[in-house]
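Thread: Modeling a multi-component assembly for a lab meeting

Hi all, long-time lurker, first post. My supervisor asked me to bring a structural picture of a complex we are working on to next week's group meeting, and I have zero experience with this. I have the sequence lines for every component (790 residues in total). Could someone generate the structure of the whole assembly? Inputs are pasted exactly as I received them:
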Amino acid sequence: MPSLLAIAADLSWPFAIALAWVAGEFGHRFTRLPRISFYGAVGFMLAQHQVGVLPQVGGAVGGAVGGAVGGDPMLLLADVAFGLILFELGYRINLRWLRNNPWIGVAGLVEAIGTFAVVDVIARAFGVAPITALLLASLAMSTSPASVLRVVNEERSAGQVTERLVHLTALNCVLAVFTFNAIVGYWMFHTSGDLLDAGLNSLMVMLASIAAGAVFGLLVPGMLRSLNSMGNIGNRSHDATTAFALAVIILVALTWTTRLSPLVATLSFGLAARHRRVALSQAQRNFGALGELLTVLLFVFAAATLQWANVRAGAALALAVIAGRFVTKIVGVAAFSQVGGITWRKGALTGMALTPVSAFVILLLEHARQRGIALPDELNALEAVTLMLELVGPIIVQRALIWARETPRED
Amino acid sequence: MPLEAFTQSDALTFGVELELQLVNLSDYDLTDASPDLLHLLGQAPFPGNVTPEITESMIEINSSVHTRHAPLLAQLQEIRDTLVRAGDKLNIGLCGGGTHPFQQWSSQKIFSKPRYQHLSDLYGYLAKQFTIFGQHVHIGCASGDDALYLLHALGRYIPHFIALSASSPFVQGRDTLFDSARLNSVFAFPMSGRAPFTLSWEDFATNYFAKMENTGIISSMKDFYWDLRPKPEFGTIELRVCDTPLTVERAAALAAYLQALCRDLLARRDQGHDTPAEDDYLVYNYNRFQACRFGLDGAITHPKTYATRPLREDIAATLRQMAPHAEALESTAALQHLADVTKQWSDAQYLRTQYQRRGGAEGMVDAAIRHFRGEPLFY
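Re: Modeling a multi-component assembly
Sure thing. I ran the full set together rather than chain by chain. Output:
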């Protein structure tokens, strides 16, 4: 007979997720703040290192690598949840727009590279080792697609801030993954001396992941199209949603067995599928109830990897990094707003909305560990950044969208 | 306030207004893009005029006053190109079409402008269901009496304009089986329909408008949503039944057809045998329904002879009769364009075909966007 303790441990995830959902619904009704901020708060509080309701998850940023990370089913589920979000993000990217209006890409590059430089300088000023400073800087370039898309969908916002925010988020993620992998590669080369195992390996992983996503992006819409041509039966857009969700799950599972990057693969899947033109309808935003459920799980999981002790230890540097990043992103995007066809105000609000960092960074680190890369222990400042922005980031996005008057007003 | 005097304008001058859809290029739904688009367009001179409309997913453009088809068409094309460039810069799709095929009216934002707020408060869901897109054509009239004569004499030709412009087969994701479902939304408004029968401006102003104003129901001509409406401050009559066609070329051709018809009606006025009468309206609503429902395949009943005739045939015959006027007005090409429509596709038929071919309403919107830009058609 299983002990009461074991039963309680088995039930801890379902209950934590349910609790987070309830907190999100009530919190959103009462405060109008984004639901995901509440999910993160619940996950963090219930985590092993805090209240201790949830079992140990992943390796925790900067902490000791937690044994069999590769086999953690929660990480797989989180990857699927994140994969659905990245697919949707990729699906909303219009590559032709980036060609028609090159200032968006320019703003994205300037803002991301600027953030990298500023955060690197700040970290070194705090006495962080150069390699850790570089890793921190590369991760700080990213913007959390999960926070951004969730808030955009929750607020039903539409307009230039929303559009640019989505495109710049994708750009930031790609740049962050690329830079992060390059630095990891460079660092491994220095520690192991094996060039082949380092730079080449991370580049190959990137390329193979992109290719895997692109293949899915060609196959799945092609299959849907031939289904459609077989006759007009039932609700087509619903079928498309299920098919895309299943494809994301398979793609994530494949990247796990092949050790490719699920982040890059699902993003590239969404991009390729969009340009094959089988549109999801409005009702399928967030992948409906499935996406809703997995998002709760994702945010609870991400926050549960964080430790209060590390957060406190890294708090001062974290605040400096957040401030530097915040200002750089606003200035970087706003500088190109007029030439890009929008007001200074909307440009600055777009930069502001690029603030969130959360699950993306955590998953990126977990996957680096999975590939057997031992990351420096001093990344705990990042843990503090992640926690603060997981809670506050969505609120900042929400404010930016409201101030830009891109959300439906209730008057 | 009594109805203002009818401003005299040059007979047969004309101008066009078009309401256009703003579409999100990711999911092809309507998107609330007009504030950003208007901001960008405000940075450079605009050929013509562009204004916000009742919802933020719609803009209205209008041409200047013209006397000939070619310059009108050239200006509309210039406006179109300016809009398309701005849309490309902001990732916004622009297209014609009388309705958006799958937008949900409940998710539309009302543009914050007092008049629209007032309409929204008054009409409730009707105001949001009014997310429909029409073409208005103004024809200059030398006097108020001319305006009323043309307005009633044109009643017989209203189905022509409905069928030739029809581009709203889908509403909220479903095929309505109407070629112009848009007009059904217009008819829901209490002040829609047709103007009261009188051929004297004096009579219209004192006996009709003044009384209506006394009832307190209306306060200006703007409160009437008639199919054809006099616009005394411009000195025009305004045709309001057309869906926004998928291309500006068709919009210009429709305006030229109306101009030619007016020239013909004015020339025939003194011959006496086609004088408009109240009884002409006996067949009016049913003819209009036939045109909305079946488009070019409808059948209409002649108001004088009661003979029933396929609409397609009636239009083709009328276009042939207008040939001398088109020559005089230099709009032969425009009438030829419409003659081709009667032989080939209306916009509504084209959209339905795209729905089938491209496997859904999103593909239909994509086709409309490409069509509006002037990209070559693919059937």
